[in-house]
Each structure stands twice: as C-alpha cells, then as structure tokens.
Amino acid sequence: MVSAKLLEKYNVPVPRYTSYPTVPYWKDHIDAGQWVKTFSERFRGMSKEGVSLYVHLPFCESLCTYCGCNKKITGNHSVEAEYMSAILKEWELYTALMVERPIIKELHLGGGTPTFFSPANLEILLSAILDRSIVHPEHEFSFEGHPNNTTREHLERLYQLGFRRVSFGIQDNDPEVQRIINRVQPFEQVQHVTEMAREIGYKSINFDLIYGLPRQTEESIARTVNQSISLRPDRVAFYSYAHVPWTSRGQRLFDEHDLPSAAEKIRLYQTGKRLFSENGYHDIGMDHFALPQDDLYLVSQAGKLHRNFMGYTTQSTSLLIGLGVSSISSTGNAFAQNAKTIHNYYNQISSGKLAIEKGYFLSEEDVRFGKYILDISCKRATDFCKEDIPTIEEFCMPVLKMLETDGLLTVHDKTVIVTTLGKNFIRNICSAFDLHLLRNKANAGQKVFSNAI
Predict the structure, then answer these.
(1) Is the distance from CB of 101 to CB of 132 less than 8 angstroms?
(2) How many CB atoms lie within 10 A of CB 292?
(3) Which CATH number among 3.30.420.40, 3.50.50.60, 3.80.30.20, 3.40.50.1220 corresponds to the domain 18-322?
(4) Which end of the chain has a smaller Cβ tally under 10 Å, C or N?
(5) What angle do CA 34, 106, 51 make, to 5 degrees?
(6) What confidence tens digit (pLDDT) does each residue in 64-85 have?
C-alpha cells in the first residue's frame, strides 16, 4: 500500500512522456525546409527498417466529456470524403520525399473515432496508402474502435487489409459514470463486439479503461474490471484520468467535487491492479497489463518494449509518420506536429505543402536524455552515459536521491533501477531526467501537465 504522505508529495503536474522533449517545450513554428531535409536524410538511412504510420481520424458523433484528444463532433458523414482526400494528398507529399517505396512496419488508426468512417471508406483510404507501400512481413496494424459503432463489416474489412489488433474504448461500465462522461455503452455491446473480433481472427484485443473518473468508487471500478476480465482481453490500458480543463473544455462540465481525491484515485488503481494480477495479467510499463501470451508482454520480457505517441508498442522504428489533423511525426532527432484545426490542415495540404506547424529539432543531449526516460518507462532501469554525468550530478541527482530516500528507486554507480514501490510513480521518476522541466522551474506553477496521480 502506498502511504498518504508519498501520494501527497508526488501528486504534482508531470508529463506522460510519449516524447522527449515533451510538446510544451516545442517551438510554435518550425522551419519546414529543415524538417523536409531531416526527414529525407533519415528515410535514406533506414528505409529497409520500415516505418510507423499513424493516421488521425478526428470525427466523433458525440462528445465524451473526459476526452482530451483532438476531435471534431459531427453527425454529418459527408465529411469523410474530403478528409480522406486530404490524408491521401498528405501521403503523396511524404512519399515524394522518399527515394523508394516505404516499407510499413506499423500502422495505427487513432482518433477521434476511426469507426466513425464507413468500412468502405476505410478500405478506400487504407488501400490507397498501402498501394504506394510495401508491407513488412512482421507488421502490426491496429485501430481504435468504439463498441457502439464498430460493425462486423468494419472488423472484416480491416482484417482483410492486415489488421490483427483492435483497441476498444470502454473507459467504465458503471451506468452513472457513463452518464456523466457521456459515454453510454451497455456491457452487452462490449461483449458482442469483442466476440465478433475473436470470431473473425483478431489475435490481440485491447480494452481502454480509465480510473479517476467522476463518481467512481472502489466497488464500481471492481465491477468494471471484473466484467472486462470476464471477456479476457489480451491486454488492458488502465489509464489515469488526466484532468486538464484548461485545455479540454468538455471537462469543465464536471463537478470537480465528484472527482476522487489522490488517495481515493490510487486505491482505484490498486483495486484494478490487484484484480488484473489475480487473473493472470502482468503489469507492463505505465498503466498497461497483458496476458502472458500477448506480444506486448513477450517484447517487454525480451527488453524490446517501445513507447511513442501511439503509447506502448511492440515495434520500434526510427521513423514515425503522422497523417491528419494534429498528428505528430518523428525522425528520432526531430518532431513535427500538423495543424490542430481541420480548416488550417485543409488549407496547407490543398496548397501542396505539408501541414506541419509546431515542432522541435533535438540536440545530442536531448537524444541521450530521451533515452533515459524511454528506458525508465519501458524497462524500469537505465544506465548513464559518461559524458552526461556532470549534468546529471547538477540537475538530476538531487531529485534521484530524494526518490531513492523514499524507496522509489536505487542509484548505483551509473545505474538507476525502479523498485516495486516506484512502479506507482514512473512519471515522477522519468521527470528526474527531464532537463527542460528541471531547467524551467520558474514555469513549474503553470497549468501545463496533469497531476501524476
């Protein structure tokens, strides 16, 4: 059990570390020419390795008030054709920068709600992308599906295109919690769509659950977890609710008195974690659990777990291409984010330009410290480079020593190892290597990140 004193001490705003540096430290405008040059050089150097492709499909038919994603609420499905056309134009712009056909190793459809799009339109979109590519023999294709609108035809057509993993956004099964977050979906519907996916042949089914939502209790979260376990999803993302009403307007609809305290929230997590463990699921990275036969567990055991803007993944590629509004691309030494509004995204793509706006070009120091953070989040241990020791001694070691005193990690020579207790505070431990955060303490009080708990 985690003490109330530790919870209070470490329940501070810290990033979720899907990148380093994190997005708030990126530049509001980046040199498009420099990005094109960096992208082209990196592609030439790793073209045989394969690329990761993320496609952001932002449309939703209704607003889930907890959601912090970039989305567009509409019931008008005529928007599908125009958006698909823009995605394919953007893909053409990227393939024009490649010296040969790209090898796609990883492809993920995120949202929004990807299954807002009709099965026929998803097939048209994906076929056009894949026709200009080579599919890696060890590829992993996945998509996010809403239980209420994912049909058998969605599942069958995407399966035929090579998709073998689906992630269903469940969040919570309690009717009162569902009403407050405007995400009403009967458990029977979740069961139905899960069984359909299994019948069709999907090898990995993920459930997204959230703890810390309004009016959740230990009893209600236990029911949700037990119901989910009864369907034996291969993996579960058990996310902490990120309350950031200053950026997500829908969250302003909540009565904050309905939100659990930090102590209550950690008990919700511990209840879920205990139930997952008792039913054969293994704790992986931050917030993830997987059965022993699932690839996520197998790669974590092999020390090959990876984390990027798509979360934890079994694939590790040097190049991630993000298509669509607000999508993020990464070359390993640079990040570029697309325009955040559909209007601006359409304008840039229609003018024959990449839609990138915000971004960051990494220094060699950024690359090394990003690796420390990736190691902690994926392997729960890291080793220092000799050249970084003076910087680590000045900025990181005071924080690491405090974390060690509290029993969250051990520091020995040039190695940091996370303890069992420290697994509850991975975000805090990652932040000990975040030089941008440590060097900008004057801005620490600003509302940028959600609390760690």
Answers:
(1) yes
(2) 10
(3) 3.80.30.20
(4) N
(5) 30
(6) 988 888 899 999 999 999 999 9
